[in-house]
Amino acid sequence: MTAVDERRMMKLFENLDVPEGIKIELLRGNIVMMAGPDVVHNDIVEAVVDQFPRKKWRRLQTQDVALPQESSEPQPDLVLVERGSGPDSGRLMPPEVIRMVVEVVSKTSVDHDYVIKRSIYAAGKLPIYLIIDPIVAHCVLLTGPIGTGETADYRSQSIYKFGDPVPLDQLDFVLDTSEFRTLADVRRHRRP
């Protein structure tokens, strides 16, 4: 994609009139639309948000992330930024202030969360990417981003079953997963 094509795509993306209940993201120049999340999904995000004290953290939901080098503006389920960091207004959060992004997997987002966003977030040098998967009842903790473009990845990957604590050493924090529930009647996948 040329620079002119990227600018056109960004302009189109920014000006789309999206119906309520539809989530939209720009992932490597592709506009991706998904239905709104399941209650299980929202409960998991809420359980994570509740654990991070508001006085120390900005716990931003539906916050777009600026990753222009990737032609991407993903919208993670949760963006964690230290209080006092980042812009006070605007649609895009710069990657250099983000401490962690969280994605909760849905039945339609498996490949996006495990493959596409994994390389996008690694290329954007986001230090912690936490995938919470209510389909297979585990969390995948990714740290140490390396590389560029589609081959970017994380040096470290650890998997924790729901109910087990997830040590977020870079944040000096342990995430309690005991409240996380699974999605009913969804076909299991084989990721990560």
From TrEMBL:
GO terms for molecular function: endonuclease activity. It comes from the Bacteria. Keywords: Endonuclease, Hydrolase, Nuclease. The keyword Calcium does not apply. Residues 13-170 form the Putative restriction endonuclease domain. Residues 63-87 are annotated as: Disordered. The keyword Transmembrane does not apply. Pfam families: Uma2. This is Uma2 family endonuclease. Residues 63-74 have a biased composition (Polar residues).
